[in-house]
Amino acid sequence: MFIVNLKRALPSLTHSENRIAAYLVDNFQSVKDLTSYELAERAEVGQSTIIRFSQKLGYKSYKDLYDDLIKSSLNDMDISSVSPEEDTVETNEKLYRSYDATLKEVMDYNPVQTIDIIVDRLYLAEKVFCFGAQSSNILAKLFTNRLLEIGIEAYNSEDNFVAISLLKKMKKNDVAFFVSSSGESTVTNKLARFAKQQGVTLITITGIQDNTLKRMSDYSLCCPEFIIYTNFKSITNRCSQLFLIDCIYLNLWKKDPERHNKSIRELDDITRPEFGGLPLLPDEEFSFPENHRKK
Prior knowledge:
Blueprint: H1 2-9, H2 15-26, H3 36-43, H4 47-56, H5 62-69, E1 80-81, H6 88-109, H7 112-124, E2 128-132, H8 136-149, E3 154-156, H9 160-168, E4 175-180, H10 186-197, E5 201-207, H11 212-216, E6 219-223, E7 227-229, E8 234-236, H12 239-253, H13 257-270
Parallel strand pairs: 1-7, 2-3, 2-4, 4-5, 5-6
Antiparallel strand pairs: 7-8
């Protein structure tokens, strides 16, 4: 089915290929009579890009994509497109439907048994190193903080040298937790291979498509990606990754709530105002130390 193939290819689409996808979604009913040349003109891309786009979605040619597309119904086209003319309510509803559909699929793609095994491996690990390249590291850092909060020794670094140094010190019972939507990030996959060489358990969150990182993983969770198209770019929601991270975190907390609650309380105590750990209140005036002030 066209829409399934499109979702699987999302992480690897270029800007020009996203333009083609956006045009097909926006003009679903009228594109069924277009040749590849006409589609290239309408999407403002080269005809060769149409061929590459078709092949990236798993079709041998544009004709195969076209044949699959004309079999699709409007109900299949559940990827939303946002236009400047619509009001805030309509845009928000599209985003809500996108998130809702994503979470339903993520439950289907990830068996409870796999999540339970991952939780057990994290619980038994002495150390956990979390990594993601670029925007994926926001999620890796979030998971690192979640683990630290309940007293699990966890590390995160975007610096390759620091990452390798940390992985060198890890043992077989330890875990490397990597996040990559495409599963084809050069930096992420190099570090994943190094982690495997160290004998560390590799747990990953990646896309539903077959990819290099998934094939290296001991355990992998899959995240279907839904997109919201604008006339400038596509916005991929990451709620599936956030959902899986929180699933792992809460089920990990359940393994030893007494010990984990103690860690949370200790952290709360350290960050109370009398310890100076909380941010400044809005009405407090900030000033640099004397030696840092500009002269």
